[in-house]
Design brief:
The protein has 153 residues and is mostly helical. It contains six helices and no strands.
């Protein structure tokens, strides 16, 4: 069991990373990645259901591999190269999510834990945080097109 101080550091780290993923800050290299991926996805034929499916999977699984498999499966099924495979967006997203493992490991190098599963769990939580912002931003940028199919006639 984590100490309350350790848990507070962990939660603050996740919140700070969430802001980093969602908000572009010219002073911080790599900031706004979720926004950039969301904008790229809006220029593909990836629909809301696929992005929401990714988010639902992220929150229902205990494995980063399941999230990566979902993305790779979507890329593999994109025969026309107009969705997840367009401009390698799916592969790039999977690589980015996998790279979050380093951030989890860095956190635990500064804040050691007794539980050997903590870095894996933090990696999963970082992926969830990223995908949460990706989904919200995707729907924001896609909104004008989405309204047409949501209007009840």
């Amino acid at each position: 069991m984590r100490s309350p101080e350790h848990e507070m550091k962990r939660r603050q780290f996740l919140a700070q990373k969430g802001d980093f993923y969602a908000i572009d800050d010219s002073d911080k290299k790599g900031s706004g990645a979720a926004r950039r991926f969301a904008e790229k996805l809006t220029h593909t034929r990836v629909d809301k259901a696929n992005v929401r499916g990714l988010e639902a999977l992220a929150w229902s699984t205990d494995s980063v591999a399941d999230i990566l498999d979902y993305i790779h499966m979507r890329v593999g099924r994109d025969n026309r190269n107009d969705g997840w495979a367009q401009n390698n967006i799916g592969h790039d997203l999977a690589k980015y999510l996998e790279s979050l493992r380093k951030e989890a490991e860095e956190f635990f190098s500064k804040n050691p834990s007794d539980d050997p599963d903590d870095p894996r769990q933090l990696h999963l939580d970082l992926c969830r945080e990223f995908i949460k912002h990706l989904t919200a931003l995707y729907e924001f940028y896609k909104k004008p097109e989405v309204l047409e199919d949501e209007i009840k006639k």
